[in-house]
Each structure stands twice: as structure tokens, then as C-alpha cells.
Write a structure and sequence with these properties.
Blueprint (H helix, E strand, L loop, with lengths): L3 H16 L5 H14 L5
Helix pairs in contact: 1-2
């Protein structure tokens, strides 16, 4: 799984994105996938 600093950074990012009413759900999902892949977690 992720090292603690990366896990904390993703959780912070995830919370901010979910609270943002500007992005539609598809865009949010693409961002989640891109961030996951950037830190080495491939679906």
C-alpha cells in the first residue's frame, strides 16, 4: 500500500476534490485515477 506521507496527501486531496462543486463526477473520477497512477497504484 502507500507510505504514510503519500496516503495523507491523497486523503487531503481527495477531501478537497469531493467538497468542490465545480467538477462533475466524471472529471473527479479521472483525477482520482490519475493521482492513483502517479503514486504507483494502478487499478
Amino acid at each position: 500500500m502507500l507510505p504514510e506521507p503519500q496516503k495523507q496527501a491523497f486523503q487531503t486531496f481527495s477531501g478537497i476534490v469531493r467538497q468542490n462543486d465545480i467538477l462533475d463526477p466524471k472529471t473527479t473520477r479521472l483525477i482520482y485515477l490519475a493521482v492513483s497512477m502517479a503514486v504507483g497504484c494502478y487499478p
